Amino acid sequence: MAELRKDSLLDRWVLIAEERAAKPQEFDDRPVVRRLGDCPFCEGSEAETPNEVLALREPGSRHDGRGWRIRVIPNKYPAVNLRVLSLPTVSTQPQPDGLFQQASADGVHEVIIESPRHVTMAGELSDAETAAVLGVYQARLRTLRAEAAERGLRYVQIFRNVGEAAGASIEHLHSQLIGLPLVPTLIADELQAATQHFAHTGRCPWCDLAEAEVASGRRIVEATARFALVCPYASRFPYEMQLLPRGHEANFDDAADDHIREAAALLRRGLARLERVCDPASYNVILHTAPFGLPEAPRFHWHVEILPRLVKAAGFEWGTGVHINPVSPERAAAELRAVKLG
Amino acid sequence: MAELRKDSLLDRWVLIAEERAAKPQEFDDRPVVRRLGDCPFCEGSEAETPNEVLALREPGSRHDGRGWRIRVIPNKYPAVNLRVLSLPTVSTQPQPDGLFQQASADGVHEVIIESPRHVTMAGELSDAETAAVLGVYQARLRTLRAEAAERGLRYVQIFRNVGEAAGASIEHLHSQLIGLPLVPTLIADELQAATQHFAHTGRCPWCDLAEAEVASGRRIVEATARFALVCPYASRFPYEMQLLPRGHEANFDDAADDHIREAAALLRRGLARLERVCDPASYNVILHTAPFGLPEAPRFHWHVEILPRLVKAAGFEWGTGVHINPVSPERAAAELRAVKLG
Questions:
Q1: How far apart are CA B82 and CA B93, in angstroms?
Q2: Using the beta-carbon criterion (under 8 Å), do B312 and A166 form an inter-chain contact?
Q3: CA distance B241 to B308
Q4: Under a CB-based contact definition with an 8 Å cutoff, are residues A310 and A237 in contact?
Q5: Beta-carbon neighbour count of residue A246 at 10 Å?
Q6: What predicted TM-score, i.e. pTM, was given to this entire model?
Q7: A242 DSSP β-pair partners
Q8: Which of B286, B300, B311, B320 to mutate to test the interface with A (most CBs of A within 10 A)?
Q9: Among partner residues B20, B319, B321, which is closest to A324 by beta-carbon distance?
Q10: In this complex, do A318 and B331 lie within 8 Å of one another by their Cβ atoms?
Q11: What whole-number distance in Å separates Cα of residue A108 and Cα of residue A147?
């Protein structure tokens, strides 16, 4: 049984998921990375994976057979308990002294296979394929948001790990989705900061940020009519990027189709730039969207974080939470802008 | 010039340190790890390093020559500006809209070479050598605490990276010390939680924690009269450990010599256990001690965190702050306890 536990002092939760445990000696060497020829995510290997939850399919093709463009399956090694709850029974159980708080980690853990071809870099997808991936994110978010109360879900984290240094053990391009019975601290902190900023100024800080960044241009990689791709002012990682809507949009799943197409093209170009500046590139792509069922959720403003993994977080970073970044975002943006895309 | 920047929303600071920057192509491959035969930290290679700040030396030996047991030098590639300030001029400069806060990153960055021999694992040091290392930590902390107001220092983070996966680029056993002009959020959060716990209960949460863990024994790796070595209830990493004094001690640098000897022996045994369970082991060792000059600092309770780096933080962890740990601390403690030490 996976379990959520809170740190005895900090508002920091961990997922203890022994089902994912390997024997200690299996940690000794680098994890096996499944590549072409041994890839369970390629078209034709559907029998190697759990049954699909959702797929974009050619007319007439069969479930869990060939003929798909994007395929969503449950994760074979889930980090959470996949039992569907009929009632939201999940709640933290504080002990009298508060030192050992825990909650049952019931939720959802899915894999989104982004192409039937053995694509390994996000920049290799076309704009239309990238838009289709974002559309599938939206479809799963809409379904899970609708079922959130029944299933006890409070937040869904969608992310993509590309490259071994970024934690990918299957190189075939895929995203993951983990639904949780609590709002993670990072998301809660962002929402709280936004709510406070709004209370003080009457404006959304992300809207302000997008406007200020586009106006200065110093950290802009590329901007379109509706979106800005920026190297954040306080980037933790070299060549870190953030894609954010210039107008206010709380829920990613509410974004209109033409917005999604515009965001997808900008995201794909951004990742293609990154893959040219840092070759080979390893990076995490993280979607932050409004949590479920909170009255202040409309104050959220969805955005995508791109975290290249060129330098390792070490003792200083884990000890303080302060990252050392040897590449200023101004320099990173200039280098990324300078890439000539085909 | 290194610069501290605050995230536009979160209370999260980064150190932008371009002096540490390499050209982008230098990120492409794994960093060069300097090993025996090419090691600037071995006895006899003193000329390859900056002049020592402090050393434990044999009587009659010369500064920056042979004949030392532990040697402290400035870091050749500092993450902070090493200018000594005559006045604490460092302050954050919030902009009207608060989106782009920054502070000059003036501070201290030193390397503590822990042995003249080419030792690569902390478990290879003797108890006496480990105690001497902790004594040198104390000496530097005392000096920097005394100079804190003059130099504008608010916190000193001491840490040790062992193994490539933990971020070490020189395998010769060494610690680092970074002094900062602000209290990092993680430390400030711990101090705030402790202050609140004390206000509610009249007790220190770390004292309570040590007592509860020793009483239950489930997560104890080893306990002595004055110290507990425990796998934390909400461990982020497999085989994570925490060493904490069972009695209240705010400042590590105030710990008595016999306490330090007891802590050192327990720490060394704990790391030797870890090096046996996870071979080869990569880990970060992090000392948390009270920040400088805060009235509530006596509510802090120093402790050492040991973070093994067997699994990579990936998109989910960076996106949510929630770590997935496949080894429960109860199982980790049982495996670590079972190791037969020589």
A1: 20
A2: yes
A3: 9
A4: yes
A5: 18
A6: 0.93
A7: A230, A305
A8: B320
A9: B20
A10: no
A11: 12
Burial class (CB in 10 A: 0-12, 13-18, 19+), A3: middle
Continuous segment of H or E residues that includes residue B58: none
The answer to whether the beta carbons of residues B270 and B243 sit under 8 Å apart is yes
φ, ψ of residue B136 to 5 degrees: the values are -70, -40
CA dist A335 to A1, A124, A216, B157, B307, Å? 47, 20, 17, 33, 35
Q: Which residues pair with A15 in a beta bridge?
A: A4, B324
Provide the 8-state DSSP code for A96.
T
Query: A187: nearest CA in chain B?
Result: B320
**Rounded Cα–Cα distance for residues A103 and A91 (Å):** 6
Q: Which domains does chain A have, with CATH numbers?
A: 3-338 (3.30.428.10)
**Interacting residues of B217 by C-beta distance below 8 A, sequence separation 6+:** none
Three-state SS at B285: strand
Half-sphere exposure for B85 (CA within 13 Å, toward CB) = 22
Q: Which residue has the tokens 């920040």?
A: B291
- Tell me the Cα Rg of chain A: 20
Angstroms from B45 CA to nearest CA on chain A: 26
Pairing of strands B102-104, B3-6: antiparallel
Q: Which of A8, A17, A314 sits opposite B205 (nearest CB)?
A: A8
Count CB neighbours of A190 within 10 A.
23
Cβ pair A312:B235 closer than 8 A? no
Going from the C-alpha of B40 to that of each of A48, B61, B117, B194, the distances in angstroms are 51, 19, 11, 41
CB-side neighbour CA atoms (13 Å) of B3: 17
Number of H helices, E strands in chain B: 7, 14
Q: Collect all residues of chain B within an 8 Å Cβ-Cβ radius of residue A8.
A: 205, 209, 232-234
Q: Does A61 touch chain B (CB under 8 A)?
A: no
Q: Quote the CA–CA distance of B144 and B265 in Å, as a whole number.
A: 26
Going residue by residue through chain A, which has 342 residues, state the pLDDT in tens, using 9 for 90 and above: 889 999 999 999 999 998 765 544 445 445 567 888 889 999 999 999 999 999 999 999 999 999 999 999 999 888 998 765 444 444 445 454 578 999 888 999 999 999 999 999 998 999 999 999 999 999 999 999 999 999 999 999 999 999 989 999 899 999 999 999 999 999 999 999 999 999 999 999 999 999 999 999 999 999 999 999 999 999 999 999 999 999 999 999 999 999 999 999 999 999 999 999 998 899 999 999 999 999 999 999 999 999 999 988 999 999 999 999 999 999 999 999 999 997
Nearest CA in chain A to B322: A14
Query: What distances in angstroms separate CA B131 from CA B46, B207, B290, one per listed residue?
Result: 23, 23, 20
